[in-house]
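thought: fold this chain, then report.
action: predict
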Amino acid sequence: MNTKGKLIDFIYAAFFAALTAVLGFVSIPLPFSPVPVSGQSMGIMLAGSMLTARQAGFSVLTFILIGAIGIPVFSGFAGGVGVVLGPRGGYYFGFLIGTVVIALLKGTNNNPWRLALANSIGGIIFVYLFGILWLSFITGMGIQKAFMAGALPFIPGDLFKAFSATIIGVAINKRLRKCLERLS
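observation:
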C-alpha cells in the first residue's frame, strides 16, 4: 500500500473514532443496567457502512485505545482501562468485531437492503453477543439476566440506529462514488 493510502486510512480512522466519541456524549443511564443508552453504536454502524473493513476496524481500535489510556471518549464521558475491563467492556470489543462485520457484509454495490442487514448483524447481533457474554462474566449474572439488562431495552433504539445508519451510509456512499468518478 502506498503512503497516500495509509494516510487516508489514518484520516478515516481518526474521523470515525472522533465521531463515535462525540456520539457517546449522548448518554442516558438506566437504573436497571450498568450499560447506558448512547449514540456510540450509531458511530460504529456508520463506520462499517462507509469504510473498508480495515479502515473501520482501525477506527474502532483507535477509539478503544484512546479510551483505555484514560481520555473520556466512552459514553458518559468515561475513560480508562477500568471501563474497558468493566461491565461495558464487552460492548466495546463487540464494536470492533461488529464494524468489521458490517464492512465485510455490506458489499460494493451500495444496496440499501444488504447494508441494513449488515448493520443489523454487525451493529446489533455481534455487539450484543460480546456485550452480553462479558456483562454476564464480569457481574456474575446469568446470560438471561445479562440479556434482559444489557440488550433487551436497547433493541428498539438500535434498530432505529441501524435504519438511520443505512440511510445515511447509502446517501454518502452514493455521493462519494460520484465524486470519485469525477476525479478519475
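thought: worth noting. The longest strand covers residues 27-28.
final: C-alpha cells above.
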